[in-house]
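Take one record.
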Amino acid sequence: MHATRRRARSRGTTQKVTYSLPEAIVTRLDERAAGAGQAKSAMVSEALAFYFAEQDRKALAAVYAEAATDPLFAADNAQVLRDFAALDRDAEDGGR
């Protein structure tokens, strides 16, 4: 990555960088940007934001999957569900 300068934009501070991409990706980016009337930088930024969000979602899913196999977590979760069920019944009964 080669940083040349920073400047402020509506999305906050940006940094000009240089990366190498496969030629096929550059060609598709050029075509899509021209067709959408969108700046290539904006398209790359949006694509990376989606990629990072997906990676974060997968990491969180892995943590939840691991927690689901933990007997202590399962017991705590079952107790929380019972507690909320009781509160829900009280609310439905008008708090009697």
The chain is about 70% helix and 10% strand.
